[in-house]
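I'd like us to work through together how a protein chain folds, taking it slowly. To get us started, please write out a protein record for me. Label the sequence line and the structure token line clearly, so we can match residues to local backbone shapes. Once you have written the record down, we can walk along the chain together.
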Amino acid sequence: MSSLLLLYSLSFLSIILPLILLHKWLNMNNPKNPPPSPPRLPILGNLHQLGKAPHRSLHSLSQKYGDLMLLQLGSKPTLVVSSANAAREIMKTYDIIFSNRPESTPARKLVYNGKDVAFANYGEYWRQTKTICMLQLLSTTKVRSFRAIREEETALMVEKIARSVPSVVNLTEAFVTLANDVVCRAAFGRKYSGEENSNFVMLTKRFGELLGALSIGDFVPWLGWIDR
């Protein structure tokens, strides 16, 4: 009799406990007056709604839920802003509150453990890094010093496009090559052509793809082993 009672108790717990945990997960960290939010799934949240073209999916969701929308991307609550006015207010009035960058596995692996000025969290280190970039790379004097390089490479690109008439021109490829040539001349004192240039372009493209890749561990930490 006691064994049968124990079996019933375990069966009841196996049903009710997941429901309790699910209810707790759905209500944890919810602010009192959150922005509108689409229904979400346990564990995944709204990740499944991003699709292969997240910018289009977010635009579609914003048409239904408004310019300020709260998504739950795995364990990460994410505020999506689709209004220029709201974005301007956040970037200017509340910039300190929203200044930190989210943790990113690709950034950690590709840009010095996330220490790059574009990914480092707001603080003394970021302020010093920004100052160095502004003085050594983006100051008026530095930008002007590369003016001749920019003008020469731009003229060469325009000339190359003009010679291609009436053939179809891949402008994306042309602008990537232009940017690559300007950066290489400014940084290394020379530009690369042929196979070397193709390798630079390929590496730049691959770097961008990897940096923007989805890392499941960033959203569902206990599944981070999948990224390895």
